[in-house]
Design goal:
Blueprint lengths: L58 H4 L55
């Protein structure tokens, strides 16, 4: 009997897919195309979200500010075990310059920091 090869899924999980579906980046419009996304696993967009021409309007989009940083968030020492066993969220990870401690930061860079009430 001839052995048949099992087809592997063509969608590559990307850097932007981290935290899907709650805190991932916006959807990649190239992943579903014939040749796929040229950036592959290094793509900063989410490969698991569904892309459409008209994004859904949410509270973050109506204010004109984007919740997600334009640069990928650095994995820090405090991010280990995210989302269940990580440290408290880093206040500086999503700022324009990012966290100055970078990979050595003791706080989680994937959790979203919020002011305490």
């Amino acid at each position: 009997p001839a052995r048949q090869e099992v087809a592997q899924p063509s969608a590559v999980i990307s850097r932007g897919s981290v935290g899907h579906p709650f805190s991932c980046a916006e959807a990649c419009k190239y992943v579903k195309r014939k040749d796929g996304c040229r950036d592959g696993a290094q793509c900063t967009k989410c490969h698991q979200c569904f892309w459409s021409k008209e994004p859904k309007k949410g509270p973050a989009e109506s204010s004109g500010k984007s919740e997600l940083p334009s640069e990928p968030v650095v994995f820090s020492a405090g991010t280990m075990g995210h989302p269940y066993n990580c440290s408290a969220a880093c206040k500086y990870a999503r700022r324009k310059g990012g966290c100055r401690d970078g990979e050595e930061c003791a706080s989680c860079h994937y959790c979203k920091w919020q002011r305490s009430a």
